[in-house]
Design goal:
mainly alpha; Farnesyl Diphosphate Synthase; two-stranded antiparallel sheet; 2 strands; 75% helix
Amino acid sequence: MPNIAFYRGCFNSYLENKIRTKEPRNLYDPIVYIMDMGGKRLRPILALISTDVLGGNYEDALDAALAIEVFHNFSLVHDDIMDAAPLRRGKKTVHKKWDVNTGILSGDVMLINSYQYFESYPPDLFKSLIKVFSKTAIEVCEGQQYDMDYELSDDVTIPDYLKMITYKTAVLVAAAMKMGAIIAKSSEESQDAIYEYGINLGIAFQLQDDYLDAFGDPENFGKQLGGDIIENKRTFLYIRAMELATEEERSELKNLFSIKPQNPHEKIETVKHIFIKSGAAEVTRKEIEKYTKQAFEILESLEAPESKKGVLQRFGNKLMNREV
């Protein structure tokens, strides 16, 4: 069975042929711009691999994979507007390079395009794929709303946070895999199993992202360390620390997450110290291990050849080690 680089190359070639500038250029240039930024292409790769693992032809999943990736990038364009973010993957965000109105309108076209890519499938597959895709698209929007709500709340619980990251991150990973299973015409049991694999892997990935933001290697992480702390984001680490820390530490943590100092180094180091001393860092590591283990246990039960399941096992390991 092909390796991960093979699937990425196939998808990128397909994307380059499909995403082109046309008139009016001010509508379509921003779409080409955001899609050309690259990224890991995790979701479309998983759609192709899932189709292959479950006995289908990965090429049949290319349009579904493209729909997923265009939708994902549409959500980034609109999220950047909501967050007033100046940069995305080291480059100007769409609304900064053009303007907010252009970002909104180009994003709208991307959302519509993502649905159009399913039109290549026969009616029975089209209906099944659209059902999964529409449900997921709504959940991603709900996840974004939860995220915005929680920025203003001091009462976010662990179940609240896990629901938010499930909707905002994990469901699109899981949907990509389930759509691959649908295209492969696998059993409903296999479709549900590979979806649950994606959910657990997506949650583990996001929790690790939270952890690495504070404690990662800056060369491997690819983002500014302490970014969540600087922005006062109440991640899993913060919520757990507020549960486990002493009253004095909780008071200090709450105060630190209400300010944005000019030089944030001392703030970052103090917060990290509380995360470690309270036990929140260790609890977070165990939670990452739990969801990763659950994902691989589901994979073991999947009805597919062991040689093919090994590709998903390797993908999961590489993803959690930030190697893909």
